[in-house]
Amino acid sequence: QVLAGVYPIAQLQDPYSAVGFLGSRLALPPLLQLRPPSGPGWTAWELCEAWAEKRGYKTARAARNDGPRAANRILRLAAEGRLRLCLTPPGFS
């Protein structure tokens, strides 16, 4: 619903699940030019942390990477059409 523009991105309680859905269907690391993680693969949290590091999104007090802000921005890129997500309808051959 978020990626279709039906549900507002700002209202999400857990943006990482939507980023995980997007990341499972798109090759986000090469599209966003992110450095690979130390582990075997990317999780939604690692995608957001890497994007926050690249863009310089930091929290006000602790100056740590701001993951929710990065997740919000990734979802807005998809909603604006800067990241293209095309899904085939169920039963389409």
TrEMBL record:
InterPro entries in the record:
GNL1-like
Keyword Protein biosynthesis carried by entry: no
What superkingdom heads the lineage?
Eukaryota
Q: Does the keyword Nucleotide-binding apply?
A: yes
- Identify the species of origin: Orthonyx spaldingii
Name a GO molecular-function annotation: GTPase activity
Q: Which gene encodes it?
A: Gnl1_0
What's the protein here called? Answer: GNL1 protein
Where would one find coiled-coil regions in this protein? none
Keyword terms: GTP-binding, Nucleotide-binding
